[in-house]
Amino acid sequence: MEAAREAVEELKGIANRLVELRKAGREPAVLQGAANAGVPSLLRLCGAVRAAVLEADASRERVQQAKAQMERGVMALHSHAYERRFYEKEIAACYGFRSAFPDDQICVEPEAAAAAAAAAPGAPPPDPHARMLARLTLELEARKALSGALAAARAAREAEAAAAAALRARLEAVAASLRAVGAARQPLAKVLGARVPLEPRPRLAAGLPLPLWVIYSQLAAGRDALGLPIAARIEGTQAAAEAAEAEAEAEAAAARQGGGRGGSAAGADAIYRVHPLSTVVSLFSSSQQQQQQQEEEGEQGAPLLEVHFCYYPAAGLVGARCVRGGAEAGALLSALFPGDTGDGEGFELLAQLAGPGPYAFGSAAAPARPYRWAQDLGGAELLPSLPPPAGEAARLGALEALAARQRQQRVQALVQRLQQVAAGG
User: Fold this and answer.
1) What is the count of structural domains for the chain?
2) 227 and 346 co-located in one domain
3) Would 22 be classed as within a structural domain?
4) Are residues 280 and 343 in the same domain?
5) Are residues 205 and 239 in contact, defined by beta-carbon separation less than 8 angstroms?
6) Strand 278-283 to strand 317-324: parallel, antiparallel, or no bridges (unpaired)?
7) Does residue 400 fall inside a structural domain?
8) Helix/strand/coil percent split, the chain, to 5
9) Looking at the structure, do residues 276 and 146 belong to the same domain, yes or no?
10) Which of 75, 108, 276, 420 is 20 to 30 A (C-alpha) from 210?
């Protein structure tokens, strides 16, 4: 740069000299010689300028390279800073991990310690980081197993839902069919006429012992569906039934605390204790008289007879007694089926409760007798165990009568026999 300055100063001096020579009016040859004296300075100036340009280009290249290197360094610094923040965040998340769905079933600390001890017996305990990794691995496996079980449970639930939907569709189809049947039976019901409606007594019916409920439901269904000339009702009160149930529970608790039953006298008294609810069936001469008796309370609709069914809880038997015209008519029930007089013979339970010695059922406080046909009507199939009567012909006749009755509908057979005995008595 010094050479360039010197060349510039020399060219300025030559230019001033040329101006002075021009003003002095010197010859052109003198002017040409003065101008030629500035050529070396001009050449030196051009060389200096060229060198400066080359130096500037080299400096520019070095600046570009330095800038690129600096940009790469800045990018690497940003990348390292980002990675550091990311790793710090992940490490903090691992240290501060809290499950959004905590469960007490996943507790793998003991399992992780046992697995580590089994993998390297005798080795020193691992550092906290290795222990944490082992625990996380076992917890991940446990959560995978739980996820699989959850998926299986959801699949099973969907399958059950699909099956329930299919059953619901079938039920809706059946309901539609039943509605169609109900609509189709209306003209037939108008032609045949309405049956006597059943008067349900749900609270009393729910309190009945099972055999009496079976008898009541059969008789009521036979009246409504078959048009039998009978009427069924329940006698007793709900309060008395609840009191009897509480008393029975208290006696059972006392018996358990006392270690057994009482004497034979107490057992005999318990045999004849009846349930406060009973089922009563009234027999009429025709369905019209039955309907008239229900619609009009008066003497004109009096039934032919009434059969009262009661239940002996201690013996688990059903007793029956007949009332005709306001008086007891036990002979009518004894004549219903051959060989069945209701004397309690053949009931082993009665003999055990009564104690040693001969036994015959009977008590003034309990006039209802345990006929075997009453047990059969209440759901106990006891007719085949009737003792055979004396004589071959009588035995064959009894067996034929029993077989014929078993082939018949029980309610219809009972009503038919009652009608026959009432007409013959």
Assistant:
1) 3
2) yes
3) yes
4) yes
5) no
6) unpaired
7) yes
8) 65, 5, 25
9) no
10) 420
Bridge partners (DSSP) of residue 310 are 319
The verdict on residue 100 lying in a domain is no
Q: Is 316 helix (H, G, I), strand (E, B) or coil?
A: coil
Q: Which domain holds residue 303?
A: 196-424
Q: Where does a domain end: 48, 67, 95?
A: 95
Using CA atoms, how far apart are residues 206 and 187, in angstroms rounded to an integer?
35
Per DSSP, 282 falls in state E
- Burial degree of 302 (CB within 10 A; 0-12, 13-18, 19+): middle
| Rounded-to-integer distance, Cα 61 and Cα 55, Å | 10
- Give the Cα separation of 356 and 271 in Å (integer): 15
Reported pTM: 0.47
| The domain boundary residue, chosen from 193, 227, 258 | 193
The per-residue pLDDT string of the chain (425 residues; one tens digit each, 9 = 90 and over) reads 666 677 777 777 778 777 777 777 777 777 777 777 777 777 777 878 888 888 889 999 999 999 999 999 999 999 999 999 999 999 998 888 776 655 554 555 666 667 666 766 766 666 777 777 777 788 888 888 889 999 999 999 999 999 999 999 999 999 999 898 888 887 777 766 555 454 555 567 878 888 898 899 888 888 888 888 898 888 888 888 888 888 888 887 887 777 655 444 445 567 778 889 999 999 988 655 555 555 544 444 678 889 999 998 888 888 898 988 777 777 788 878 877 777 766 565 565 655 565 566 766 566 788 888 888 888 775 444 455 555 677 667 666 766 665 555 678 888 888 888 888 75
Q: Which amino acid appears at position 331 of this protein?
A: A
* Same-domain status, 415 and 319: yes
| Contact assessment for residue 210 and residue 178, using Cβ atoms and an 8 Å cutoff | no
Give the Cα separation of 258 and 268 in Å (integer). Answer: 19
- Contact between residue 272 and residue 310 where contact means Cβ atoms under 8 Å apart: no
| Cβ neighbours around 229 below 10 Å, total | 20
Amino acid letter, residue 254: A
Structure tokens at 367: 């006039």
188 and 200 belong to one structural domain: no
Helix axes 2-24, 39-95, angle to 10 degrees: 150
From residue 69, how far is each of 60, 79, 279 by CA, in Å?
Answer: 14, 15, 110
Please tell me the distance from the alpha carbon of residue 91 to that of residue 57, in angstroms, as a whole number: 51
Residues 395, 411, single domain; the answer is yes
Are residue 296 and residue 350 in the same domain, yes or no?
Answer: yes
